[in-house]
Amino acid sequence: MKIVILSRNSKLYSTRRLVESAKERGHEVSVIDHTKCNILIEGGNPKIQYNGEELSDFDALIPRIGASVTFFGTAVVRQFEVMNVFCANGSQSIVRSRDKLRSLQIISQLGIGIPKTIFANHPKDNDVEGIIKQLGKPPLIIKILEGTQGLGVVLAETQKAAKSVIEAFSGLKANILIQEFIKEAGGADIRAFVVDGKVVGSMKRQGKEGDFRSNLHRGGFATIIELSKEEEEAAIGAAKAMELKVAGVDILQSSRGPLILEVNSSPGLQGIETATKLDIAGEIISFLERNILKGKHNDEI
Fold it and tell me: From CA 180, how far away is CA 261, in angstroms rounded?
């Protein structure tokens, strides 16, 4: 099987592990920087060029698309789709998952638990007070829609602080989500790694002392955890809602059950493999093998 991995840096842990795992199973694998691809659009003859050469004859694609290049990166994935290459995650599912507001709307429609959330279009003074009242007493979480890895997320511990932060972001014309703070989570969340409708690994991430964010990039640490049946069902349901076959689902443990924070379409492997000692990269390659052997192809663009 010929596999292409879209990644801007072949030295990243996740990319290296996917390459290692594919080669161990006897597959041919190439790492392509999607930002350096040219898309050739022609009736009945779609092509992709990379460094002046045409890419062809690939069986499967693993997209590792960074948030900052979502538009172009998903255009490249879409081109592979029209070339009938099997994609671990489709272009539309990646786009859907990158829109935090849209993701929460889709997940909530299916009855899966999420933190109570409000999205408002640059609210004015009176609106701000009404928003805070609807979410209950502070603390509140205020997020910039485009933020990643814990950046652009603020904990407002008082009503005055919440009002000031919301007004400041509104003044910058930033799109924000305002969410209830789940105190009982204790600054921790769960990352469930879902591959092909199955949780293949899970870890609990704890923020460093004094930080409510549990992101490992922000200095948090991770330990292995066994999910409850309810948590596992929520993770699988959230990935399915986003139509993602490979996903990192972030979950808060609350007094009313698991709450979905986010569904990541390019989840990192280092934290989950280090915490669980599991071969998550191998699970992804096995998923590709099963689908290529079945002769599956992308049904839609």
Answer: 11
